[in-house]
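User: Please predict the structure of the protein below. I'd like the answer in structure-token form so I can feed it into my own downstream comparison script.

Assistant: Understood. Taking the following sequence of 546 residues as input:
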Amino acid sequence: MAEKRKLIQYANGPSLEEINGTVDVPKDKGFFKTLLAYSGPGALVAVGYMDPGNWSTSITGGQNFQYLLMSVILLSSLIAMLLQYMAAKLGIVSKMDLAQAIRARTSRSLGIVLWILTEFAIMATDIAEVIGGAIALYLLFNIPLVIAVFITVGDVLVLLLLTKIGFRKIEAIVVCLILVILFVFVYQVALSDPNWGAAFAGLVPTGKTFATHPTIGGQSPLQGALGIIGATVMPHNLYLHSAISQTRKVDHADEKSVAQNVRFSAWDSNIQLTAAFFVNALLLIMGVAVFKSGAVKDPSFFGLYQALSDTSTLSNGVLIAVAKSGILSTLFAVALLASGQNSTITGTLSGQVIMEGFVHMKMPLWLRRLVTRLLSVIPVLICVMLTSGKSSIDEHVALNDLMNNSQVFLAFALPFSMLPLLLMTDSVTEMGKKFKNAVWIKGFGWFSVLALTGLNLYGLPDQIKAFYGDGITAAQSTQADIIAWVLIVAVVALLVWTLVDMHKGNERLKTELASEHVSSTYEHLAKLSREAGSEAEFDKEAVAER
């Protein structure tokens, strides 16, 4: 009993053990009834694609380049669908989340390095949530920013309550919050009467989409595209999906049951990510159609809120009439608050997944949330206090810069989740012939991994320079380039280490499977499932074999 009372415990059981395999799913029922049973995990994943970090990049992209970057949002969403499909499939077929799978195939030292790297990435996204939540509270209730920042720590109480009501109810709450966000932007865009022909034309990429000229508002199309990509595809979503895809019950001894899980998890994910695509597209359309071209001088949440209540910045008479009531700006702040709360749930679950998977440590979700939120609050508080004596515009810009600059950690962490994911789902040894990636998925997967890694590393020098502010000197620019190249070399070296370790792990796995007279991890799990007397016994055996 004393062991159970420890706040930090050893963990090497099923991923998110409290909810793993807890949701019943129908067999041999109609498509829509079955899809409803599987719907939910995709919504938790989609939250990461419409969090506060996405808002500024999409709206600013619309303000600066009209509908040119619509194609970037579409491409990012399609890549996200592909990666999330592979993450869910890995969890369902191998009965391991991505963190557990990487740790099982690599050395302990590399596992610790990747854990620390991913923790920094999650904290970077948490900074955006703190800023978004605090600003929403300030805008809605006029709560001073310092106090609002501390109030965001209180969302740990919300999380504590949610853990008591069941995972299906958590999924339902997340879906409701997504619908709130979607309604707000559909309403505002509908009032703006955008040029839908130009918007649809923007979905087709051209040579101008990734051009380095012209520079508008200090941003080129390439920089705008990199900003949207960086804010869209995030590593923690891959870890999360590989874990929560296991909440549905599956019989590993029955290939049809596993295949059904994979199929409907993909449907759920793609439907929810399509909703995320529409939210991000609506944000960009807002930048074009809701505001007059170039009217938004302050792209921070403060500036967008004020612009939605300033009749001089809005594009048509209908918007101006509605804006006078204050409803446009209020709805914007409500959507911002909903987005922050959604991200609270998913960020905490992701953090637990990577901690248990990489270093086999487990703590209560409320404690995990409290620790990460307090760490994320520190840079936000420092930023607020340093700008407290300056003008409100300086304070707004500083917070916006902090949110954007914190995303630099995502450029480091993303390749180390994408590459192992692709290698393992491409592997016959890991997935079996039935569930390994099809040739076209493998091709698009490698294109996505190489393109996103290349673009992130290509944009790294500019991200480093952004830390120096607008008045960067030639000496500081050179210094930023040196720092960027050192980091790029470090990322490449770490990627090589990961590839070597993954190869060794795969060869070791082949030897172990051969001794069991099976050819893949999936076949081994099917054999264990048939031999196990109960689901609990199967879980125990699967963990022991990991």
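That's the full token string. The two ends are 26 Å apart (CA to CA).
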